[in-house]
Structures are given as structure tokens and as C-alpha cells.
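Hey, resending since the last one bounced:
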Amino acid sequence: MAHKRSGGGLTTAQQAAKFLGVSVLAGAVLAGIALPAVGAIGLSAKGTASGFEDLPGELKQPPLSQASKILDRNGGLIATVYSRDRTIVPITKMSPNILNAIVDIEDARYYEHGALDLKGILRALSNNASDGGTQGASTLTQQYVKNVFVEEAGDDPDKVAQATQQTIGRKIKEMKYAIQVEKELGKKKILENYLNITFFGEQAYGIEAASQRYFSTSASKLTLPQAAMLAGLVQSPSRYDPVSNPDAALTRRNTVLMRMAQLKDITPEQAAAAQKQPLGLKYKQSKNGCITAVNGAGFFCDYVRNTFLTNAAFGKTKSDRQKAWDTGGLRITTTLDPKAQKSLLHGLSEHVYQGDKFVAADTMVRPGTGEIIAMGQSKPYGFGKNQTQINLSVDKVMGNSVGFQQGSTFKPITAAAALEAGFKPDQTYPSPYHMDRYPDVTTCSGATIHAGADEGTQNESPSEVGPYSMPDALKHSINTYFVALEADVGLCPVLTMAGKVGIVRADGGKMREGASVTLGTNEVSPLSVAAAYAAFANRGVYCTPIAIKAVKGPNGKAMTVPKSLCSRAMSQNTADTINSMLKGVVDDGTGTRADLPGRDTAGKTGTTDDRRDAWFAGYTPSLASAVWLGDPFGAGPGGKRLSMQYGAKENGGDGEGHGGIKVKIGPETFDKVEGATGPAPIWKDAMLGALDGTDNEHFVTVQLPGSAPRNNDPGQGHGQQPPANGGGLPNPFPSFSFPPPANGGGDNKGGGGNGRGGNGP
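The C-alpha cells again:
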């Protein structure tokens, strides 16, 4: 490269002096290089020198925004997210072809002049004076400084306009900082920085992103024709865009090749051969954000983003975290297991179709670690028809869902609170089919909640009449048993246990209190339920859910990542007893359709009133998962969520279970959807694939009492008395009615008007 030198030209002081001299002599003419409006900022030939000297001495060079990579636990790419698609590479990883091409077409005397090309300035002055044009004279160093201004402006349109405005003030600032930068960095580093910062069109910033965008290759492997085309883009990325204007791009590329031959960086023969080649694009569409996540992991990706933006570990303030995310260059390794994620999506798609009125959501959590290994729903992440960006698996603050009533999947929490309070699994209650009114309960603040005259509950079937012990009551999901148990244990211990295993309202509010709490009347998220059940699997130790395993910054340095916080929520014996009882639910209770062949499996079904929510939450010793099914978007009359029951008014029935249309979800048609029939098969199919190839671990089980004898005698007594520390009276129930009401219905309304509760399997 005979025309290039590593040094040469005037010294920095000489350049500045000569430039200032020209400024004073030429005045407004100098300003007219490409900046005709001198008076607009109040600078004249007389004031130019002082304005130059008054500028701050240091150019702030903000870190360049780069693309961040979100990876699964195995290092596979989930999604690329960025404010600007850029991957910084050193000059040693840039093809000599692009180094030569960009200098030849943009600043041929780059290695001969200093920061400013006074020869170019004078030439521009002469040409502009003679023909009235606005010929530019910016060196690569000046262009780099201008790009720094633009980068610092970010996405603020006003700041971008200021950074690119055609005024003498900006030009003076650009020139002074160019002198400083060249003195500090030198030619090689400036060229490297320039090629990493400049815009090449099609949302590609920097030469590496541009190489990948247009040719699906790295900057180090750019061929001569490829490099010439990319170098030609810099002058006008839109005019010479090879995607939208290939003819203009080809002409511009050939101009660059001709210039390279003139400057003897290539031979005329090389230029001619390269000019004959087609553009040869291998274009990669710009893919940014969680919308591009693979393996249906868009909701998980969005959860990772929200985790980063709301956790102080990644920045002291919200703006600090947002800046770190936007600046990018992060490598975020997550907890997602691609095998489990694929299986979860398979389970959902086999049973619920994307176009269905009803939606299913599933989340998997690994006991003992809190790691979320899979998350998804039947309507995928997106903006289109039958898509949504609302993450139904998580709380409102993390995904904009307000959650769903938990139904009978809450009952094991009441059972755990009872065991911790000294009750035994053989605690027996008469458990009639129907209870007219909930018993009084006392809140944690000491207030007493009295149920209204019509606030009671009933079991799913008239045949479900006690007495029942705790294992059978869980196995058959007996509402009246658990209302009685809660009354004896006390509402406060039950809510305290819920808090210990991470059950909170999805909308961020305080748990609503009332006698129906045990029936799952509070709206919660599938993630909360899965993590709570993981505590049972972990023998009583609850671990907060986490989605991020490791983060490396743009410099490759590891960042501190918050760990799961684990705490004992209940004794091992309590957890082992719950596991033994919930194992019975799957073995021969309401959850048989979730049974995993050859594996220890435990779980609980849940269905809320009017069949608006159906759940199955279950686990093995090594994996917990919660599936919710329902209508989350209020598609019923007046925005009321649809019922999953034949005979519901919104399904054309009489509201009493008669008439109308049956419920179609996925390939099946239902008279009524329950946790046992809707979510349980989804859960099973998802778990089978997730656990495939893993060891079959076993629960530590305890001896449970035999099934309590059935007795339909309404005068049957309580059986066992609760322990002295149980927090209740021997007979707290106002009244029972038997036989059941003629309509066979009944609402699980909460004491104190706290909403409808869960019933049924």
C-alpha cells in the first residue's frame, strides 16, 4: 500500500494552528464547506477561534450498544436482543479487504494527513466557492467523532438531530475532538472503532453485523467484492441498500473497486474480475427481541428481560439496568432446558390448539434449585392472531397477567399447615355433601370474619359424603373437609404456610382472607404454584424461582447473579406426609390421568366454580410443574370469562348444566372440564418428555391411615378432636344441610365476600 503511511502530515499543533488561521481568514466561507448557516448559532469568522478554544477538552466516548445473547442452560441461543444490532470485533478480525476498501472510498489520504485534511478543506472551499455546492471534507476520524455523537444520542430523535445538524458549531466541535482522538488513539485504533460504530443499513451497526446481515459471514472472511459493497454503503445506506436497490448497490460497489485499483490496493485485473461478479447476497433478516425466541421460549425470554430490569443485582437504579440492557453485549445463560421446553410445548399443542377460545399455560421448576426449566402456553408469544404477549404463567409485574383462582390445588397447603400445627393424617370430619354457611374464621390481625347466610360450599358430587380422613379428603378433593380443617387450624397459620411456599396474589395485592381461602379463591400464577409444589418435592424446603444462571458483560467479565433463596417452609416429616398423600391422588384419586408410568408421582387437581379455571399441579422428586387451563381474556358476555361447561349460559345453556353446546378444546369435546380431564393429560405428556432419560427417584413416604369408612348419616360426629394447639374449637360449624339442594350446584363463595372458590377434582 504505497500511498499509505502510519504517520506523516502536520503535527497536531500545526493542524490546529493552520485550521484556526484558515477559519479566521476564510470566515463564513470555511463554514460553508457543508454548513451554509453560520449566523444561526451566532458564530462568525471573528468568533470561531474563541468558540473552538472554549469547547470541553475531552470527547466522551460511550460504550457502544451491542446485541445481547440469551442462551439456554446448554449454551444454545434462545434469542438475540438489542437496541442496535452490533457485535464489536478487533481489527485483527476484519478482512484486509474491508480495511482497504473503506479507506480508499471514504478517506484516501487517511494515513497521510492528521485528524483534519487541510488539503481537502481547501479543495472543498475552492469547489464550493466556484460552483455554489457543499462539498464535504470530513476525514474518517471526523466521521468517527460524528458517529460517537450519534451513538451518545441513542434513540432520542431530538438528540440525534442535534448530533447530525448541519451547523458550524457542530462542525467545529467535531474538528476539535477529531484532533484529540487522533492524538490519543492513533490511526489503527480509530479505523477499528470507526468500522465498529458506523451504520451499514438494514439495522446493522458495525462491520461484523453488516457482514452477517448481507452475506451470512464474519467480517474476517469478507471477499473483495463483498468488502467493496459494504464500504460503498457507508455514504448512503438507504440509497445503496442492496436489498431494496440492488442496481444502485452494484454500481456503487464497482465504483469502490475502481477506486481501489486507482490507489493500487488491487490490480486492474482484480477489479475487473470482481466487477463481473453478482452481489451474491446471503441476506439474514434482522431478528431482535423475544419475538424471535426459538423453541416457543418467547414468554421465558420476556421473563428473563423483566428479571434483569427489576433486579438490583444488575444495576442500582431502573435507568442503570435499562442502560445496561440497551447497551448490550451481554451473554445471559439461563436455566431453560431445551428438552423440557420442547416437551412442554408438545404437551400443550397435543391437547389445546392455538385457535381455541381456551388457553393452557405450563411452567416447570426444579426442586432444590428454584430453576425454571420450561415455560410456555398454547397461544404463542407474538402480536398476530391467536398470539399474545401476556405471560399467563407469571405474576402481573413480570408478565401482565393478574393470575387465576387456584382452586383445590391450594388444599395441600392447608394440609401442610395442619400437620405443622400438630394435626395428624387420620384427622376425621363428617364432611357432608353440602355446607350452608362457612364457619367463622379469625384473620392474622385478629379480626373475625362471619360468613353470610348464603355463603357456603359443597362437594363435587352428592355421593361425596364423609366421614373422611386427610388422605382420602385430598384424594377425592373434598371441599367440606378442608373448610372444617381450616377452621380448626386457623386461617392465619394457613396463610402463613402459603407465604412460606411462595403463594402470593399475582396482582401484587395482599392475599384476600376468608373461610374459602382453603378452596383456592385467591388469584395466583402457575409459576407460584409450581414453585410451591417443588417445596413439597424438596422435603419442605422452598426455593425462590430463578431464570438466570450467569451473565457476562461485553468485556467478558462475569456479573454477580442473584441466587435462589431457599428456606425451610415445613418439617421433613410434614413434607413427606404431604408427598405420601398426594401420591395417592395420582395413584387412585382424582389425578389418575397424570400418573407417570414407573415413576413416583404426586399431585393435585383443581377446578373453580363455574369451571372457569382448571389446574393440575404435580411433581416427581426431581421436577415440579403446574398447568392452568381456562379463558384468560374475558370472551364471555360483557367480558365475562367463559365457562368450560356444557349448559353454561355463555355456551348457550340455561346456566344449570343443561342445553347449549359442549366445550371443544383441542381434539376433545367435553361436557365439563375439570383439572382431572383437561390439565392433567397436558401435564403428563409434558413431564414424560422432560424426564425422559433421567433416573427414577423415589419419595420418602410415611405410613398413612387406612381409608375412613363411609357413613351417610348426617348425625355422624367429628371423630377425632383437633389437638390443643390447633387454633380452633371442637365444633366450629354453624350448620350442615343434607340432602343436597335440588339444583346440584352451589357456589364456593368466600366468607366476608372474598370471591368464589374452587371445587371439584
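Residues 216 and 510 are 52 Å apart (CA to CA).

Sorry for the duplicate.
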